[in-house]
Structures are given as structure tokens and as C-alpha cells.
Amino acid sequence: QVQLVESGGGLVQAGGSLRLSCAASGRTFSNYNMGWFRQAPGKEREFVARISRSGGSTYYADSVKGRFTISRDNAKNTVYLQMNNLKPEDTAVYYCAADRSNRGGYGTPQTYDYWGQGTQVTVSS
């Protein structure tokens, strides 16, 4: 069991930046692969980024590659999503998720065991 709480969302203009944080409970944060997903109104939940337990491997959706960076600080039980050059199409609720297993499918929501409540990101044009 792990509890996740996202923060850092808000309203920004196109071209701006935000950094999202996800704080995890417990003492075994480093056992989890972590991901960020987003969901816009009327759309499916969409993979954004993934980071391995130690932070050595990262994966990004094509739509955000080169603009977003996922990172983690295991000493602080926190994973981050730095979002630069934001676009209106990035508008969504952003969710942090934890995956304890080594199974494949990092881009599929069903792969993840625990989810945060989400934080709203709105990008205006």
C-alpha cells in the first residue's frame, strides 16, 4: 500500500512551465516504478511519463517528449514532472501512479497499483 498526493497544478499561458510533485507515503517508495498520466474531459486516460525505481530509466509519450521531464528523489519520497513549453492540448487532470511489479505495459493505466487524486493543469492560448 502506498498513498500518493499530487500538487503543483494551476493555470498557465501557452509556452509557460509548471512543475508537478507527487508525495508518497510509507518507507518503501524506492520499490515502485512511478508514472504520470493525464486525462482531459471526454478523453481516455493517457500515458505521459514513467521512471524506474532508481531513476535510471525514463519513458515519455511522443506528445510530451522534449518538453516534459520526469524525475524522482527517493530520499524525499517524491516524484516530479517538469513541464515546459506548455500547450493548450496539455490541459488535463494529471495523475501520479505507482507500479510495484516488473511486468510490462508501463504506458497502460491498468499496470499501476496506486493512484493519486489528480491535479488540474490548464493551459490557455
H/E order of the elements?
EEEEEEEEEEE
Number of strands: 11
Shape: globular
**Major sheet, described briefly?**
7 strands, mixed
Oligomer: single chain
Helix content percent band: under 10%
Strand content: over 45%
Tell me the structural class: mainly beta
Tell me the distance between the termini.
40 Å
The residue ranges in which pLDDT falls below 50 over 5 or more consecutive positions are: none
**Alpha carbon gyration radius:** 13 Å
Taking all residues together, what is the mean pLDDT? Answer: 96
Number of helices: 0
Which characteristics define this entry?
125 residues; 0% helix; 11 strands; 47% strand; seven-stranded mixed beta sheet; four-stranded antiparallel beta sheet; single chain; mainly beta
Structure description:
This protein has 125 residues and is an all-beta fold. It is built from no helices and 11 strands. It has strands spanning 4-7, 10-13, 18-24, 33-39, 46-51, 58-60, 68-73, 78-83, 92-99, 114-115, 119-124. The strands form 2 sheets. Strands 2, 4, 5, 6, 9, 10 and 11 form a 7-stranded mixed sheet that branches. A 4-stranded antiparallel sheet has the order 1-3-8-7, with no helix packed on it. Strand 5 and strand 6 form a beta hairpin. The chain is globular, with a radius of gyration of 13 Å. The model has no long low-confidence stretch (mean pLDDT 96).
